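PROTEIN DESIGN WORKSHEET
SECTION A - STRUCTURE
LENGTH: 264
TOKENS:
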């Protein structure tokens, strides 16, 4: 079951910085790509200033999807997950801001984070965390050093193993045995966090008329695009005025009342 927080509590902060990896997720307003990037060493690159503010050092990589998306719309989600004995997933839903390495703010900010100058650092991503979420993490495999036929050999010759947890299957089997899985899906899987329609089976179990819910979602989407429409109208008017000013488009001459003829 997901639990939501208005801020990053002390125990969430401590747990996050103990993990070995975190992920960033971002997307453009228009386009087909949704980006997910793994980041290592949270203790060396990630700082949580307080309950609603954090930052991480972004090093040079093969692309700059997160930076580009944050510049465009500011939306970014940070995710931590445990590969240890105690499963957990934690997400920070954020609005981000980019501070590049050559900006005056960069070095003081790096000092404020308590970090050394990370080689290849190209930016710091400042995060305004407006919501945190934890969930079970039962589906995340557990890291093990035990020998088995499923071991993955590393470049140094050592081996590791990612063991699938059986917790998720035990939980779902328990829900099915109690005939409660469908009610759980109806409660938790019918809509996204932003209210977008989700699992249709869950929506039907909520006795929802799917067409009505889909129309309501469409109306909300159109309403959200209203701002873009108004901007387009204003831009069009400005372009028209500029063209009229250059003489490329003749200005419309006002018609005097005496020139209007009414035909009987």
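SECTION B - SEQUENCE
RESIDUE ASSIGNMENT:
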């Amino acid at each position: 079951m997901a639990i939501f927080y208005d801020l990053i509590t002390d125990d969430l902060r401590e747990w996050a910085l103990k993990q070995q990896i975190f992920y960033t997720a971002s997307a453009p307003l228009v386009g087909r790509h949704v980006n997910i990037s793994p980041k290592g060493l949270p203790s060396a690159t990630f700082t949580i200033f307080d309950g609603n503010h954090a930052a991480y050092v972004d090093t040079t990589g093969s692309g700059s999807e997160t930076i580009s998306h944050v510049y465009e719309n500011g939306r970014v989600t940070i995710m931590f997950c445990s590969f240890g004995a105690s499963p957990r997933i934690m997400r920070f839903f954020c609005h981000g801001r980019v501070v590049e390495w050559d900006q005056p703010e960069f070095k003081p900010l790096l000092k404020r984070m308590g970090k050394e100058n990370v080689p290849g650092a190209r930016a710091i991503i400042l995060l305004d965390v407006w919501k945190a979420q934890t969930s079970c993490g039962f589906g995340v495999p557990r890291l093990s050093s035990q020998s088995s036929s499923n071991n993955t050999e590393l470049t140094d010759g050592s081996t590791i193993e990612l063991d699938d947890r059986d917790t998720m299957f035990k939980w779902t089997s328990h829900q099915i045995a109690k005939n409660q899985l469908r009610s759980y899906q109806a409660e938790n899987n019918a809509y996204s966090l932003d209210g977008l329609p989700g699992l249709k089976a869950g929506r039907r179990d909520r006795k929802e008329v799917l067409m009505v819910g889909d129309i309501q979602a469409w109306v909300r989407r159109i309403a959200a695009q209203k701002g873009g429409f108004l901007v387009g109208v204003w831009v069009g008017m400005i372009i028209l005025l500029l063209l009229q000013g250059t003489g490329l488009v003749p200005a419309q001459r006002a018609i005097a009342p005496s020139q209007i003829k009414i035909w009987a």
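SECTION C - NOTES
Residues 28 and 69 are 5 Å apart (CA to CA).
The first helix runs from residue 10 to 18.
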